[in-house]
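Narrative summary of target 7.
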Amino acid sequence: MKDIFIACVDGLKGFPEAIESIFPKTQVQLCIVHMVRHSLNYVSWKKRKEVADDLTSIYQAATVELAERHLETFAAKWDASHPTIAKSWRNNWERIIRYTHIRMRSEKAIYTTNAIESLNMSLRKVTKNRGHFPRDEAMFKLLYLALKNIAQKWAMPIRDWKSALNQFIIIFEERMPHH
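Modeled conformation, tokenized:
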């Protein structure tokens, strides 16, 4: 791999810095799904939907300025009872807001790590009930076959990929390989 345009990561400490140390031009985006889940850890079940809806107004804002106003509105409403949520969003703001204002049909490819989690879950599923492997090769063969099956599922083209690709060509014009 020679370059990464955008890396979407979960909240694992040090992961963004590790990516940026190897690929300094990479723009790291925090997974919005993980940010919302992390935020809801501090909220009672009765208030979860309301807090989640208020967070949605932040990351689905049409502009960064509007997102900032929604974050301030969120903080004014929730800081008295849940002060850690807005603080967490402010602390990670640069890595949260970077691409949330880009409206394209495949924006989920930018702001979520669910595809990676799906792959990990599929691999765990095939190894979970095995207990142990007689040799390392046995485990590698099982994982190889599982990856072949998973790859068949993922062989479909990404929906609206051409629309997203056009956006990436504009944003990363000087780094985009030309074929």
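The mean pLDDT is 85.
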